[in-house]
Amino acid sequence: MKLQQLVYQSKSTIPFSAEQLETLLRPWRMHNHAQRISGLLLYGDDDIIQVIEGPVENVHALYQTIAADARHYDVITLADGPIPERAFAEWSMGFSALDESRREQLAGYVGPNLAGPGTPVHPGQWPELTALLREFAAHQLS
Ligand SMILES: Cc1cc2nc3c(=O)[nH]c(=O)nc-3n(C[C@H](O)[C@H](O)[C@H](O)COP(=O)(O)O)c2cc1C
């Protein structure tokens, strides 16, 4: 099975509370599990970063749906490419709050105000991003 990992950033249209997101995540996780998709959703203030990984067709089909979702905008693909193994195998969609210090840490990698590079890169070319996201996932997850 060819595994793909995609990382994008976006801005939420309306502010979500952690409770609202937890409720939204329930059916999303069921869908992801059925599609063999794992990943991580980071949310804080109105910044969103999500990692989606799994079979390449399933990842791209889900991303098409997500990118067209009116609940967020300015969707920018940061990384998209094949991976040898999952980085977030434990979670059908982990969720972690992106607090100020984490936003600052991420901005150091992703760019000021989380503005990403113009063209998405291969995840393997950006190991620091995956490593940092994994660290966030290890620290606080629902
Ligand atoms: C920030 C964000 C992240 C999302 N992540 C997922 C996800 O991981 N899995 C999922 O099934 N839907 C996710 N969705 C919801 C999809 O956009 C879509 O509403 C859902 O898959 C239902 O699709 P359908 O109405 O075409 O059945 C996400 C939406 C947003 C705004």
UniProtKB/TrEMBL annotation:
Question: Would you say which domain of life the source belongs to?
Answer: Bacteria
Task: Quote one Gene Ontology molecular function term.
Answer: blue light photoreceptor activity
PROSITE patterns with a match to the protein in the record: BLUF (PS50925)
Q: Boundaries of each BLUF domain copy?
A: 3-94
- Signal sequence span is none
For this protein, the record's InterPro entries field holds: Acylphosphatase-like_dom_sf (IPR036046), BLUF_domain (IPR007024)
Q: What is this protein called?
A: BLUF domain-containing protein
